[in-house]
Amino acid sequence: MYHRLAPVAQSNPLLPGYPFNAWLVAGLTPIGAGDPLDFFIDRPSGMKGYIINLTIKGRGQVFSGEEAFECEPGDLLLFQPKTSHYYGRSPESDCWHHRWIYFRPRAYWSSWLVWQDEKRGVGRLRLPERLWGEFERLFTTIEQTHTSGKRFAEELAMNLLERLLLRAVEEDPRSHQQIRDPRIIEACQYVTNNLAGELKIDEVANHVCLSPSRLAHLFREQMGINLLRWREDQRIIRARLLLQTTQEPIATVGRIVGYDDQLYFSRVFRKRVGVSPSDFRRRSLDADTLVTRESWDLLSASQ
Ligand code: FCB
């Protein structure tokens, strides 16, 4: 018998009500028949970020009625943002264990996030058995790296996630990777080289010989977000790195990445990262600078 729990705000990501206010959250959901996790995950309007999950034991069921399909060990599923989530243990199986990662992608990952086999916003890739161990280890390493509390925990976890997504695309026999329009690549390059400047769409459009409206349309189509938002992503990524690796004052870091007004910089930073630039720097300094030996061992074992 499935039961649904009312979503009350709480701190366990395996139960309804967890806020997922983060760039990355990873975990394992081990569902056994009749135990407290044995309910259907039901998020009719989906989530802000993507979810990738890997079935490692038993079988799961996604959606219900005519649209329902099952997943089994070695199946990778990718849920697009805002796509409805409805999944749980298949009634035919006594358990469903799956590893999952919730994430807000880097802008340039967008073309790896459109999978060939997709149903109602859920992509599916069945991995051959020889790859199950490699992918499961990647999921585990991402979770361990992210929760290690070390200085670059999130960057390294994102870095491993990028590897996981690339490996998935590489292993998909049907992936005819969309080749990105060279004008969009050039536009990205131009924006990156002028991160600090007061950039106007007209100027970028002019540089890549497109009309402003054509550039805006093509950029969104190929990158999944609009150009100004993409630039903000790049500014914040760069600011995080500068805060972690230099001793420049916060105001200077803000200026380097294009925010002359320190208060405004702090506001945007806090909105995107969840903490102020100075808290972010303090936390990074407190953390150990070394990558855990175990992470590397796990990663090398997966190769
Ligand atoms: C957990 C679910 C898992 C995934 C994450 C985001 O509660 O068990 O499948 O949806 O939330």
TrEMBL record:
It holds the Pfam family AraC_binding. Residues 185-283 form the HTH araC/xylS-type domain. PROSITE patterns: HTH_ARAC_FAMILY_1, HTH_ARAC_FAMILY_2. The keyword Transcription regulation applies. InterPro entries: AraC-bd (IPR003313), AraC_XylS_family_regulators (IPR050204), Homeodomain-like_sf (IPR009057), HTH-like (IPR037923), HTH_AraC (IPR018060), HTH_AraC-typ_CS (IPR018062), Tscrpt_reg_AraC-type_HTH (IPR020449). The keyword Transport does not apply. Keywords: Activator, Cytoplasm, DNA-binding, Transcription, Transcription regulation. NCBIfam families: PRK10572.1. This is Arabinose operon regulatory protein. It comes from Erwinia aeris. The lineage of its organism: Bacteria, Pseudomonadati, Pseudomonadota, Gammaproteobacteria, Enterobacterales.
